[in-house]
Design goal:
The chain is an alpha/beta fold. It folds into 2 domains: 1-122, P-loop containing nucleotide triphosphate hydrolases (Rossmann fold, 3-Layer(aba) Sandwich), CATH 3.40.50; 125-193, no CATH class. It has 6 helices and 5 strands, in the order βαααβαβαββα. Strands 1-2-3 form a 3-stranded parallel β-sheet, covered by helices on one side. The protein has a two-stranded antiparallel ribbon with strand order 4-5. Strand 4 (135-139) and strand 5 (146-151) form a beta hairpin. The chain is elongated and about 55 Å long.
Length: 193
């Protein structure tokens, strides 16, 4: 674990999970409050996380004053403020519109490259998985074991380009075959149960 890491892992929630009575900076500061840091150290870490997520101008805003995408950025900043070795994300974009989702996927890509953080990203969206992942684990329905691991050999920076389209389509079809097999099994269980 890097020496400047305050927490070995942290997470980003699906539903933002912000405290409505705290400002953006107050929400981002929350995971630092149990660490033995001075006030100036906390302030510097919060300012850095806000800057890296494009929220510096919103430090004193309340969550209700922000759009859904901005609220999710607060969740991202709160996770990054502890400089985690591993970032766990539970469908962090599922409640957002398509345009905001696309912008935040680009933000995640930049954050991972800049922060050198490992991420585990849970999603039901194949396009998100193909855009974000180096490896995709498909889980069995029950008891939640790994069914298949599919590597995505295309560098992340090249996945939106036309040269990657055919390979991404092939990987999408491969993933869908695995997921479909699980869905068909569940359907058979339901109709015989």
């Amino acid at each position: 674990m890097p020496s400047d890491t305050l927490n070995p892992f942290t997470y980003i929630f699906q539903d933002f999970a912000l405290l409505p009575w705290r400002t953006v900076a107050g929400n981002v500061r929350l995971p630092l409050e149990h660490h033995p840091l001075s006030r100036p150290q906390r302030a510097a870490l919060v300012a850095g996380a806000l800057s890296r997520t494009g929220l510096a101008d919103f430090a004193h805003a309340l969550p209700k004053q922000l759009s859904g995408g901005m609220r999710q950025r607060v969740g991202i900043a709160r996770a990054l403020v502890v400089k985690p070795a591993v970032l766990l994300m539970d469908e962090p974009l599922s409640s957002l519109d398509a345009q905001t989702r696309a912008l935040l996927m680009e933000d995640f890509e930049a954050i991972w490259a800049r922060e050198n953080t490992t991420g585990a990203y849970v999603t039901h969206n194949l396009e998100e998985a193909l855009y974000m992942a180096d490896r995709i684990m498909i889980l069995r329905r029950r008891p939640g074991r790994i069914r298949e691991i599919v590597s995505v050999p295309i560098p992340r920076g090249e996945r939106r380009g036309p040269s990657a389209e055919r390979d991404l389509h092939r990987l999408h079809d491969e993933l869908w075959l695995h997921i479909r097999a699980e869905a068909e099994l569940a359907d058979r269980e339901m109709s015989h149960g």
